[in-house]
Every structure is written in C-alpha cells, then in structure tokens.
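Hi U.,

Before I forget, here's the chain from the pilot set. I'm dumping it here mostly so it's searchable later in email.
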Amino acid sequence: MGVFEGMRRKDVVTWNVMINSFIEHERYGNGLQLFEHLVSNEMNVDDTTVLIATKAIKYFKDLNKAKQVYEFTVKKGMKMSPSLLNSLGDMFFKCGDVESALLIFKQVKMKSLQVMTWNIMIDGYAENGRYEEAWKIFQKLCNEKVQFDETTWVCVTKVIVGMNNLESARNLYKQILQSGIEITSILANSLMIMFSKCGDVETSKLIFKHLKVKNVIVYSTMIDCLAENKSYQEALQIFEHMKNNNIPFNDITLVCVTKAIIGLNDMEKARD
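Structure:
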C-alpha cells in the first residue's frame, strides 16, 4: 500500500491491480471504496475495473450498487465483452435480481452465448429458487447438443436438489457417465450431495467408493450424507478410517462427525 501511495502517476492498470489486490485478500469494502473513488472523481476506468468491482458487489449482494455499476458501464459506452457480460449478469443473479440479469444476457443473441454464460444462468436461477426455469434451460441445451463442461454438471446437480427429483438425478448421472467426462473430486462431491438430498445415499456411497483421489471435502461430504440419511454408524466408521490412515480432516469434518454422534445418541435414547 505504501509503494502504491508513493507513486506519482497512477494509470488504469495500476488502479486495477490495487483494487484486485483488495478483493483477493477479501478486503471487499476497501476495493469497492477505491472503485467508487475513481468513478466519483471521473478518473480513467475500463471494463477490467468494472469486472473486478462486481466481485465485491457479489460478496455484499448489494443490489443498489449493482444497478449503479451497470448504469455506469452504459453511460461510459463500454463494449459488452463476454467476460464483462458474464460478470454483470452473475452480479445481478447474486443480488437476487433475476430479471436484470436476463436483460443483460438478452443483449446477445442466444445462439452465440458461451457455455460459461449458460452455466451462470442455470446457477443463477437455482440460487434464486427458480429450479424449473433452470431445468428448462438445461433441457434446451441438451436438445441443441451443447458441449457441457464440469461446471455445467455441477450447476445442474443444484437444480435437481432444489426439485428433489430422484429420477432426474439418476438420468443426469447416466448422462454424465455417457459424456466421458472425468469424475473429479469436485463433480463427485456435487453428485454425492445430489443423490443424498434426493434420498439415494447408496449411490452416493458408490460414487465415493469409485473415486480414485479423495480429498478432505469428499470425505466430509460422505460423512454428512450418511448422517443426514441416519446412517450414523457408517458415518463414524469413515471418520475412524480417516484417523487410522492418517487422512487429514478439518473443522467441517468434525461438524459432520458431531452430527452423526448426536444422531446416534438420539437413536439410542429413542430405543431406551
């Protein structure tokens, strides 16, 4: 910060680096204040500056500031690059304004939208509880044989959890396997949660079993899935396996284990 303040000339790149540094260190308020300082003093700002500022607004979920930033981009006549379009749309979704997000995306012909944009739309609908609309978009993309990436599949698992539809969960898993995409720990984690929430913890267990590389997140999720489905003893057995094999665990793991212990105690009390 001292080096930055000592610089006599600060161009837009310098400002962007400084704002981004605040955001990366989770000092969102400072980053947003610096952006607002640039705007109020009519200093040089480009689309990268706006893109960085949207990260802070998404963190605060401040709809008023979201609208101000969008109005600023329109006033400045900024070109809507795919990255800026995605950031602004995602910003409105995160702030709970679905209609404004859709208006931004409607500025581009639907056929030219990238898979990243579709992912934001599916996830945005899901985050705002509009699962059926998210599902319709996914089905439309399937019919058009759009090439999905891992993020798409992860987003759609959230949609299915919201719909609580086991049949859709099984069809999605089949579709993923047929696509040939690698089942990474990230995707496996989402699938395990999806099946567990839809009442099929057995499939969650199979996904966990077949995953070659398991990290602490996957282990924690499996313990939580079992605890949520009242398989408390199995949940604790996995934790014992972690300890016996020196597999690291974290605070989230312990929270999940605690849930299993409480559930097991309650079950034993009910039997008594």
